Amino acid sequence: MDWGMKNRLSQLIQPDGHCFFLPIDHGYFQGPTSCLEKPQETIKPIIGYCDALFVTRGVLRSVIPADLNKPIILRVSGGTSMVGKDLANEDVTTSIEEIIRLNASAVGVSVFVGSEYEHQTLMNLSKLVNSCENYGIPVMAVTAVGKELEKRDARYLALSCRIAAELGARVVKTYWCENFEKVVCGCPVPVVMAGGPKCETEKEVFEFVYDGMQKGAIGINLGRNVWQSEHPQAVAAGLQAIIHKGADVKKASEIFQELKNGRKGSTKRKK
Predict the structure, then answer these.
(1) What span, in angstroms and rounded, lies between the C-alpha atoms of 163 and 208?
(2) Which residues are marked as active site?
(3) What percent of the chain stands above pLDDT 90?
(4) Which of 77, 101, 102, 114 has the fewest Cβ atoms surrounding its Cβ within 10 A?
(5) Domain locations in the chain?
């Protein structure tokens, strides 16, 4: 691995080997997602707890401050929407020149294994790896399932993650599931956990993140379960404690409650 690749990965993955990525790229297929109508306002109270921001080029250029002291993971696949026929019908939307121009530390691309567009999205990943490796830019593969949430089991996710790693992804983002260790053990590159649909309670979020970390994940790439919470800063603080401070669910919940109750200032999301 050359110096440039090592340097970019070191910006994303902290010295403890763990990471907390904050995705705000949902608008590329969902439009103005609830609590993400104004991304710049959404991230203000929580970005300090995170290690990197996962974002599209449009939002990055239009509303993210250029002096933001966080590395950028650039979302580079898209071309579909929630009202379209199939979310899996994606292409690469960004050129290698723009990836470099925007000073991205990494890029993220979705793959839809088992869908009608499996070959297309896997080739998107392969071609992106071919381009980005020339410039020392890591590629994160996102094992997406579109609207078919029933696919989120260990057998399917292990298959998807391994294929993504085999095609050259430096990091794989996937869903937590029962028997998550089977997913991680079969993937030769680091695995980060996606959030998926919003959980009912913050404790549920802490529980699956803690379990996944115990079973080999290096961190998370969580959006809705953070910034759609009524207390996003408190959730982010609890998650950071699990990822970087070795906290268990009980300790993370205590941190959440402490911040929620205002002992360290109000963390309630502004309407």
Answers:
(1) 24
(2) 173
(3) 89
(4) 101
(5) 3-222
